[in-house]
C-alpha cells in the first residue's frame, strides 16, 4: 500500500479523492474499526457506524460488473455519444462508476478485466474516472 | 394511530398539456372532491409532489401556488421531492397527520410539466436525480441507470430482451383500456425489439414517455371516511432507502429499497404478497417492472422476466400488474405518478375500473421508486378495514 499517511481518523474529502484521480491514484477510505472500505464521501461506516477512517490506495485493477452504451445523452454530451458507462468492481471491496478508454463498444461484457486509466479530463472539477482493458 | 382511508380520487389525462402544473392539479383536485362528495372547506392541508418545477416552469414554492389556483389559499401547502416517488412520499406524510389526530381531511397529489422542455434538456434535468459527483459528470442518464440494472439482471438470471419487451406489450395493452393513458395503442414484441436503442440493452419502447399531468387523492380519518360512499382503507405504508450511487449498491440486479419497504408495509397490513390481488408498480423502464415484481415478492428472485413472458402479470393472469397501463403506457408525469397509482388501486378496490377491472379485487398495492432506486415507497390498501 502506498497510501499517504492519514493525519487523523477523519475521512478523506472529495477534493482529496479527485486530486488523487488527477494524479493517477485511486485512494478510498477504510474503517479503522471493522475494515469496511468505502468510496468517499462517507462520514460513518455503513457496516459498524465507526467514524475513524484510514486512507487505502487500491490497485485499480478490477472487473466490469455492469455496462451500458449511452446513445441518447444529456444535451451537453451530444457530441460524445455513443459512449460506454461501466461499473467496475475491485477486489479491495469497492466499486466505481466511470467511462472507458480503448475498449471497443462491442467488446464490453460483464467480467471483462479492466484497469483504472486516469481521469477523462484532468481539468474538470469532478473528473470522471476511466477504465482501459487489462492485458 | 387512527385508521385512514382514501375517499376520493382524480387524475388528468396524461400526455402533452398547454396548461400549467397548477391548472392541471386543480382539475385533478376538483375531480377528487366530486368523487368524494365533500366540499373544499373540509380540506385542512395540501401535500403535493413535484420534481422539476424549477426547470419546467421556473417555480419553486409550488405548494401555495397550487392551493391558490385551486381556490383554497389559506390551507398549509407543502411540496415534497423524492424524485419520481414524490407524491407517494407526500401521501405517506399526510397519512401521519391524519393518523395522529392532527387533521381529518387532507388533499394529496402531484403535478408535473416536462414537455415544456426539449428531450435533450429533460434528459439532463432528470439526470439531476442521480448522483451529482460521480454519475452526472460521467454522462449517466436515467435510461442508463436502468440499463446498468438490466445488464446485471441479465448476467445473473439470464433475463432476455424479449422478456423485457413482454412488459411493454402488456402495459400498452392495458393502457388501451384506460382513457386517461397517454398511449392508446397496442404494440408488438417485434416493434419493441426493433425500436431505436437508447441505452443498451434498453430501447425506446422499453422506456416510459415524458409526460405532463396531475393526480389528486383525498384522504380522511375513519370518522369522516365511514360516511363517504366507498372508502378504501390504507393498511400499510412504508418508505425505504438504499445507497445513492449505483457503485455503492451491493447487488445491481436487486432493488433492496423495494424489498425493505415491502417487508414493512406487508407487516403493517398483516398480509403477504399472496394476499395481493392487484398491483400498480413503478415501470419507468421494462426492467424496473421485472425487478419490482421480484422485490415485492410477487414472483421468486430472478423469475420476473419469465412471469412477464408467461402472462402471469397481465390482466387475467395470476397477479395483474399495472392495469392502468403503468408508467410505460399511461405516462409518467414524475411528481404525479405515486398519486396516480393510488388512484388506480382505489378505483380497482371500489370495483369501478370498467374494462380493466380485476374481478373481486380486495387488496391492492402501490410501489413507487425514486431516482437511482435510492427511494422506494410501498403502500397496501384494502376494501375492508384492518
Describe what you observe in this structure:
The complex is a heterodimer of chains A (135) and B (386). Chain A has 135 residues and is mainly β. Chain A is built from one helix and eight strands, in the order αββββββββ. In chain A, the strands form two sheets. In chain A, strands 4-5-6-8-7 form a five-stranded mixed barrel. In chain A, strand 5 (83-89) and strand 6 form a beta hairpin. The radius of gyration of chain A is 16 Å and the shape is globular. The two termini of chain A are 22 Å apart. In chain B, strand 10 and strand 11 form a beta hairpin. In chain B, helix 1 (21-36) packs across helix 3 and helix 8 (161-175) packs across helix 12 (286-295). Classes of the chains: A mainly beta (135), B alpha/beta (386). Chain A binds chain B through residues 14, 38-39, 41, 46, 65-78, 80, 83, 85, 87, 94-99, 110-111, 124, 126-128, and chain B through 118-121, 123-124, 127, 133-135, 137-141, 143-144, 147-149, 151-152, 155, 196-202, 243, 245-248, 252.
Shape of chain A: globular
* Structural class estimated from helices and strands of chain B: alpha/beta
Give the proportion of residues in helices of chain A: under 10%
Order of helices and strands of chain B: EHEHHEHEHHHHHEEEHEHEHHHHEE
- Main sheet attributes: strand count, strand direction, barrel closure of chain A: 5 strands, mixed, barrel
Features:
heterodimer, A: 135 residues, mainly beta, 5-stranded mixed beta barrel, 3-stranded antiparallel beta sheet, 7% helix, 36% strand, B: alpha/beta, 9-stranded mixed beta sheet, two-stranded antiparallel ribbon
Short précis:
The complex is a heterodimer of chains A (135) and B (386). Chain A has 135 residues and is mostly beta strands.
Write the layout of secondary structure elements.
The complex is a heterodimer of chains A (135) and B (386).
Chain A: H1 14-22, E1 26-31, E2 37-38, E3 53-58, E4 61-70, E5 83-89, E6 95-100, E7 113-119, E8 129-133
Parallel strand pairs in A: 6-8
Antiparallel strand pairs in A: 1-2, 1-3, 4-5, 4-7, 5-6, 7-8
Chain B: E1 4-11, H1 21-36, E2 46-49, H2 53-57, H3 62-70, E3 77-80, H4 86-99, E4 105-112, H5 119-126, H6 135-138, H7 142-157, H8 161-175, H9 189-194, E5 197-199, E6 202-203, E7 213-221, H10 222-225, E8 232-241, H11 256-269, E9 278-280, H12 286-295, H13 304-309, H14 326-330, H15 337-349, E10 363-370, E11 375-382
Parallel strand pairs in B: 2-3, 2-4, 9-10
Antiparallel strand pairs in B: 1-7, 1-8, 4-7, 5-6, 8-11, 10-11
Amino acid at each position: 500500500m502506498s497510501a499517504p499517511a492519514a493525519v487523523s481518523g477523519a475521512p478523506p474529502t472529495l477534493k482529496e479523492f479527485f486530486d488523487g484521480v488527477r494524479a493517477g491514484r485511486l485512494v478510498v477510505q477504510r474503517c479503522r474499526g471493522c475494515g469496511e472500505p468505502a468510496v468517499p464521501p462517507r462520514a460513518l461506516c455503513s457496516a459498524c457506524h465507526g467514524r475513524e477512517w484510514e486512507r487505502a490506495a487500491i490497485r485499480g485493477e478490477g472487473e466490469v460488473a455492469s455496462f451500458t452504451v449511452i446513445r441518447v445523452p444529456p444535451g451537453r454530451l451530444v457530441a460524445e455519444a455513443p459512449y460506454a458507462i461501466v461499473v467496475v468492481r475491485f477486489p479491495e471491496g469497492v466499486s466505481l462508476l466511470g467511462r472507458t478508454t480503448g475498449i471497443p463498444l462491442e467488446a464490453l461484457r460483464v467480467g471483462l478485466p479492466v484497469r483504472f486509466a486516469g481521469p477523462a479530463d484532468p481539468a474538470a472539477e469532478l473528473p470522471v474516472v476511466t477504465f482501459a482493458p487489462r492485458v | 394511530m387512527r385508521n385512514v382511508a382514501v375517499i376520493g380520487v382524480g387524475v388528468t389525462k396524461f400526455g402533452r398539456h398547454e396548461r400549467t402544473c397548477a391548472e392541471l392539479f386543480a382539475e385533478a383536485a376538483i375531480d377528487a372532491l366530486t368523487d368524494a362528495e365533500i366540499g373544499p372547506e373540509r380540506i385542512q392541508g395540501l401535500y403535493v409532489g413535484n420534481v422539476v418545477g424549477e426547470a419546467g416552469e421556473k417555480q419553486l414554492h409550488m405548494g401555495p401556488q397550487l392551493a391558490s389556483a385551486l381556490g383554497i389559499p389559506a390551507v398549509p401547502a407543502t411540496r415534497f421531492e423524492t424524485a419520481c416517488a414524490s407524491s407517494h412520499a407526500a401521501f405517506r406524510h399526510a397519512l401521519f397527520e391524519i393518523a395522529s389526530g392532527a387533521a381529518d381531511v387532507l388533499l394529496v397529489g402531484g403535478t408535473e410539466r416536462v414537455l415544456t422542455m426539449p428531450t435533450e434538456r429533460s434528459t439532463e434535468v432528470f439526470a439531476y436525480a442521480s448522483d451529482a459527483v460521480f454519475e452526472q459528470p460521467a454522462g449517466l442518464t436515467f435510461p442508463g441507470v436502468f440499463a446498468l440494472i438490466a445488464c446485471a439482471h441479465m448476467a445473473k438470471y439470464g433475463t432476455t430482451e424479449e422478456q423485457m419487451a413482454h412488459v411493454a406489450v402488456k402495459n400498452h395493452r392495458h393502457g388501451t383500456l384506460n382513457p386517461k393513458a397517454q398511449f392508446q395503442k397496442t404494440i408488438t414484441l417485434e416493434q419493441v425489439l426493433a425500436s431505436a436503442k437508447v441505452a443498451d440493452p434498453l430501447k425506446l419502447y422499453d422506456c416510459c414517455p415524458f409526460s405532463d399531468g396531475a393526480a389528486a387523492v383525498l384522504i380522511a380519518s375513519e370518522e369522516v371516511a365511514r360516511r363517504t360512499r366507498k372508502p378504501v382503507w390504507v393498511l400499510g405504508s412504508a418508505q425505504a432507502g438504499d445507497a445513492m450511487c449505483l457503485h455503492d449498491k451491493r447487488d445491481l440486479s436487486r432493488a433492496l429499497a423495494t424489498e425493505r419497504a415491502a417487508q414493512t408495509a406487508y407487516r403493517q397490513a398483516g398480509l403477504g404478497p399472496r394476499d395481493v390481488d392487484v398491483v400498480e408498480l413503478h415501470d419507468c423502464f421494462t426492467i424496473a417492472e421485472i425487478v419490482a415484481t421480484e422485490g415485492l415478492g410477487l414472483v421468486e428472485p430472478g423469475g420476473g422476466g419469465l412471469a412477464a413472458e408467461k402472462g402471469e402479470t397481465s390482466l387475467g393472469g395470476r397477479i395483474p400488474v399495472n392495469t392502468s397501463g403503468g408508467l410505460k403506457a399511461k405516462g409518467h408525469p414524475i411528481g404525479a405518478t405515486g398519486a396516480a397509482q393510488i388512484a388506480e388501486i382505489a378505483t380497482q378496490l371500489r370495483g369501478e375500473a370498467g374494462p380493466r377491472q380485476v374481478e373481486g379485487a380486495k387488496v391492492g398495492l402501490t410501489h413507487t421508486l425514486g431516482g437511482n432506486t435510492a427511494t422506494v415507497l410501498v403502500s397496501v390498501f384494502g376494501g375492508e378495514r384492518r
